[in-house]
Design a protein that fits this description.
This protein has helices spanning 9-22, 27-42, 53-62, 90-108, 125-133, 190-199, 219-223, 234-247, 276-291, 307-319, 325-338, 349-353, and strands at 4-7, 72-77, 80-88, 110-118, 136-145, 167-171, 179-183, 208-209, 215-216, 227-228, 253-254, 259-269, 321-324. The protein is an alpha+beta fold. α1 runs antiparallel to α2 and α4 (90-108) runs parallel beside α5 (125-133).
């Protein structure tokens, strides 16, 4: 069994934040990014949590990630925004953008945002949850593709052409468990392969191919020139293309290369259509009705999107987050290189305030 370290959320936050600050990240950006990473761990999606920290440091060292960059608005109307991330952390630029989208939606019914020139944005469900808390329905996608432009093969193809191209949908329920759909259009997100590798376990069948195009369950085969399969065959493939087309609204398409990429967000104010309080009651009643369906053989209950994350967060806020030894050692190595410590004594009072109990 792989050794793990059980860490409380405020401690994980302090580790991540202090590493980033030591690497030159502006303090307020480091706080936002760390909170979003730890929220992913709490939600049970460790693939988008603190295991990403070393990769972001490599991005800073390599110049592809600018640690103090601020996003800026290139153009806007009453219900649109075009944002240039200016090489910033994607988490920071995306949180900044969804908050602006929510503000505009509250006055103009809806707001659509295109974002370009920013780093990895983490778990999309984070931004869908923010919109849901504000009484908005949201659609968020990250797409990139073109021949040879990513690890995910198109349906019927023998060569990668897409990223993992995730898509997320959020709907408010008026409680702490909003309806959240959030998944890659590949069979698994690349971060899930990182998690499997860190734990020394195999992947489920049907997720990856090795570099010769043969089915594999070994994470090492993916990182040795392998590729990802799209979920749902032609259906996931079509959605992967759609995320590219939405991303291209940022103007990030190359006609000569036949490629498109970008981030798209949309927030729709429920109150523009019907009173949000009543709508949320209707949504919760609908979801609870679905959950009352008798479970099939082999299942204990019927769940709806958002239940898993809510339950994971509730449990992990109390019990802590298990971090594989390999990931913990990587964080320790980052801290050592930067000349800082990662003990519990580094936790500040404000760190605890980020992760209060769910009401």
């Amino acid at each position: 069994m792989e050794k793990t370290h059980l860490l409380q959320a405020p401690h994980l936050h302090a580790i991540s934040r202090n590493i980033f600050v030591a690497a030159g990240v502006a303090r307020h950006i480091a706080e936002d990014v760390s909170e979003i990473l730890v929220n992913a761990n709490l939600a049970g999606h460790d693939s988008h949590g603190v295991l990403r920290v070393p990769a972001y440091l490599r991005g800073i060292d390599g110049g592809s990630l600018k640690p103090t960059a601020e996003p800026k608005v290139l153009a806007e109307t009453a219900n649109t925004l075009s944002v240039d991330g200016q090489g910033s952390f994607g988490h920071y630029a995306s949180r900044w953008s969804i908050h602006k989208a929510i503000e505009k939606a509250k006055t103009s019914a809806s707001c659509s945002v295109s974002i370009r020139n920013t780093g990895h944005i983490g778990r999309l469900g984070e931004y869908a949850e923010a919109a849901a808390r504000a009484g908005c329905i949201s659609l968020i996608s990250v797409g990139g593709g073109g021949r040879g432009r990513g690890p995910t093969v198109p349906f019927g193809g023998a060569e990668g052409a897409f990223g993992t191209n995730p898509i997320a949908i959020g709907v408010p329920t008026g409680d702490d468990s909003p309806f959240i759909v959030d998944y890659a259009t590949s069979m698994v997100a690349e971060g899930k392969i990182q998690v499997a590798r860190s734990k020394g376990i195999d992947l489920p069948e049907g997720c990856i191919l090795d570099k010769a195009g043969n089915p594999s369950v070994k994470p090492a085969d993916f990182y040795d020139g392998g590729s990802l399969l799209a979920f749902g065959k032609h259906k996931g493939y079509a959605l992967a293309m759609f995320t590219c087309l939405l991303g291209g609204l940022a103007g990030t398409f190359d006609v000569e290369q036949g490629s498109m990429n970008g981030i798209f967000m949309q927030a729709v104010d429920v109150n523009a259509f019907t009173p949000v309080a009543e709508y949320q009651k209707g949504v919760r009643a609908f979801l609870d009705g679905i959950k009352s369906t008798p479970p099939a053989l082999g299942f204990d209950e019927v769940l709806v999107p958002g239940d898993f994350e809510y339950r994971s967060r509730t449990q992990r806020l109390v019990d802590g987050v298990e971090i594989p030894d390999t990931i913990y050692n990587q964080l320790q190595e980052c801290a050592d290189e930067l000349g800082i410590t990662i003990g519990e004594d580094t936790v500040e009072e404000d760190d605890k305030a980020h992760y209060g109990p769910i009401s």
